[in-house]
Write a structure and sequence with these properties.
Bound molecules: S-adenosylmethionine
Structural class: alpha/beta
Shape: globular
Order of helices and strands: HHEHEHEEHEHHEHEE
Distance between the termini: 31 Å
Largest sheet: 8 strands, mixed
């Protein structure tokens, strides 16, 4: 089960005199499915692989968390791959525009006893008895200074053998490589039908909101949190996904 594309993202199509900071508000939530597919190369591959990680790591009687669940694309991938394990799937997002839609989306396919959707800051969410935790393009929106504490909380919440899947936009230490991938990402978005104006206005809106980090910083944070097994499993241009398993 997957989400439909919903309405087409035209939010940055018209020229804006002053670009407001990007927010996950009602306008964004109403086009988000289309927006993320046309903005993040490899997004749909990552979603389906979250299903495979779930098959391999979800344990009977545990919780599976989707932190920053938005409309529930990853939550659905988890729910669809539990293979009759008695797990509770918990989606968390601090945008009510997202959680209200997410609740409806999941309710179309699953009984409400199988999942819980919470509107709250993932930094305040109590995490426990987890065999799968997904942070799919969410950590990049958390204050950099708060990321270590969140990762430690995630590590503590996982049961042995539990997995974290962390997907992020990434930076490169080499500025030439950074520019190369930024330009290629721009090309990807143009191929998806976005105009130069849409691309540049959205980039400005995200400027101080989405803060990417290099791969090495992510792996170091995972190691500092306690993970001994962590690696990059997917990269397409400047978008990457990591897994980390608790021993
Ligand atoms: C790029 S979207 C995530 C996409 C989603 N995980 C998916 O796979 O389709 C980022 C989401 O994280 C949420 N978010 C950002 N910071 C958050 C926080 N501190 N607590 C809870 N949710 C947060 C936003 O509201 C937004 O819905």
């Amino acid at each position: 089960m997957t989400l439909s594309n919903g309405s087409q993202d035209k939010l940055f199509m018209a020229y804006q005199e002053k670009i407001q900071q990007f927010q996950f508000d009602d306008a964004v939530a109403s086009v988000f499915s289309d927006m993320i597919k046309r903005s993040v190369p490899g997004y749909e591959n990552i979603i389906s692989m979250i299903g495979l990680f779930t098959q391999a790591h979800a344990r009977q009687g545990t919780n599976c968390y989707d932190l920053g669940c938005s409309l529930g694309a990853s939550t659905l991938a988890i729910l669809g791959n539990l293979e009759h394990k008695d797990c509770l799937v918990i989606g968390v997002d601090n945008s009510s525009a997202m959680t209200e839609r997410c609740q409806n989306n999941l309710g179309q396919f699953y009984d409400s006893t199988k999942f819980r959707i919470c509107c709250e800051d993932i930094q305040n969410t109590k995490l426990e008895n987890a065999s799968v935790i997904v942070l799919n393009f969410t950590l990049q929106f958390v204050e950099k200074a708060e990321r270590d504490a969140l990762m430690k909380k995630i590590y503590q919440a996982l049961v042995p053998g539990g997995v974290l899947i962390l997907s992020e936009k990434i930076l490169f230490d080499d500025p030439i490589k950074n520019q190369l991938f930024t330009d290629l990402h721009h090309g990807f978005k143009k191929a998806q039908g976005y105009s130069n104006l849409e691309i540049s206005q959205k980039r400005s809106a995200l400027e101080n909101t989405l803060i990417p980090e290099p791969t090495g910083d992510h792996l170091q944070r995972l190691s500092n949190a306690g993970f001994t097994q962590a690696d990059l499993w997917f990269q397409c241009l400047n978008f990457a996904s990591f897994f980390a398993i608790k021993s």
